[in-house]
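Notes continue from the previous slide.

Worked example: a multi-chain complex. Inputs as given:
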Amino acid sequence: MAQRTVAIGSSVGLHARPAALFVEAAQGTGLDVEIGRPGEEAVDAASILGVMALGAKHGEEVVLTAEGDGADEALDSLVELLARDLDAEG
Amino acid sequence: MSGDTRTGVGVSPGTVAGPVVQVAPPVRPPADEPMPTDSGAAVDAVLGALAAVAADLDERAAAADEHAAPILKATALIARDKGLAKSAGKHVGAGKGPANAIAAAVEEYAAQFEALGGYFAERVTDLRDVGSRAVAAVLGVPAPGVPTLDGPSVIVALDLAPAETAALDRTKVVAIITEAGGRTSHTAILAAQMGIPAVVQLHGATEIPEGTVVAVDGDSGEVTLDPDMELIEAQRVHRERRAQALAGVEGPGTTKDGHAVALLANIGGVDDAVAAGAQDLEGVGLFRTEFVYLSATTQPTVEEQAEIYRKVLEPFPGRRVVVRTLDAGADKPLAFANLGEEENPALGRRGLRLCQAMPQLLDSQLEALAIAARETGADVRVMAPMVATAEEASWFAARVKAAGLPKSGVMIEVPAAALRSRHVLEEVDFGSLGTNDLAQYTMAADRMEGELSDLLDPWQPAVIDVVAAACAGGEATGKPVGVCGESAGDPYLALVLTGLGVGSLSMAPKKVPAVKLALSLHTLDQCRELAEVARGARSATEARDAVRAAANPELTAVL
């Protein structure tokens, strides 16, 4: 199982637009990706409601996990996405 | 013979008749929905409804403009959410029918979002909208919101959400009636901008059967059910006479004896600017800049702002454009400039008060405006909202000067600024009365509270007195004072304001011709007399009636 930890880059946290972009990217991997706080129960990264309900704030660390072929590559791209300030990008 | 006539509050002038189209209210799941006998079929019904809602939202997103499309797409993502479907499925398993299962799943998530607060809580509206649509789909009833219109229609609703009003098909909606709402509600302002007759606060409006023909009078607020031919004909004749009289006035605003009163437009975006630029008016008296910020989650850069301001200013080379700097605060929160929840946002850190806490926000706006002003050649004058004291006015003027902009002004919407206008206006180049907020603060009545419409009537003698106080300061300092609230667009009140010493009137552009006509029929002295008549009245109704009775009958005959 692949696993990554990343701090949320978006200045207003993982809500609305950043959450939508992340969920679409997670769906695009075709893998079962989960996201959660370290040590807490994770949620399905393909669920916009689940991801928004996490309420991850700017700078807060989250753990991503995925299984299957290409899991490492998939998580690397998602980590890169979360680390960016998605709000600042237009 | 005509059926019954009811009276609401007329908020956008004009007379018209047409069939009623009721805007469906949010759909609730039936309390007596039976337990599903076949849970597999019930789950399918849930999934089918959610998929249909998602598809419908995607379709609307494809047809929507660049602002609405991302919102609709994100909402579609909610309808397609696996977690939501799974949760609804669990509720079916526990014995709920499909409609109640969807509603229960939606409420579970809504509770989580509300607990998170802030921006997360705001998403609850979208979530409940998805739920309401899916429940309607399961039950086979019309989706909530404005239906697709087949022809000219009178839209009737309890109240319209801003998004619903903005999305109305202007080619088919001939009038708007709401049972709630107020004089300065969003519906009222938008209807006036669109030039569609509108009546708010009409009791029992939502019970008028679909398809009933109603005659709407947006001036008097009268709505007649099943009007007879005589009334429809009278309205038609009146409409023609009015159009004819209004077509005859052109050029700058002036009284019968040549006293100039600049007639200007209130605008809130690029489309408004282009439309107003093409009209016979002298410029813009109120450019609301909030739209530049409200949809943004981070502060727009100076260049991004300048690009938008360029588009707004372009239609007005050599004409004046009065720009109100950012008027945000707890009631209109910005993602990137939030000072936290407030008990009482209307009295909180909004307008200039917010900018004083975050001066960089104002400075970047002024910088962008200076760039756009230079490049377009528009006569840009900036003013600050929510100014109460001379110190605040002075603070603002210094920043405007530092940005290299030629003229600064203040909104006079706090009674304190009106009462002390002599000192406040000394600090700046002009003042502009925002009569909607001025009425709210003078009468201590919430603008959003439709039930308080009477207190918020701009004809309230106390409000007129406060306007007079502001004008006295203008006269003492030699600084011009204008009005940019909706009251400037009431032809009779425009006469009173002119008589009080107001030098410019800014309104929804559609209202300009009637005001121009009113001014052309009265001398400045007559306007002063009408102002005395208004101030001598004991109530708003008395003031309005007395001024109407004392005005030139030629005006009364066509309005």
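Summary box: Chain A has one domain: 2-83. Chain A has three helices and four strands.
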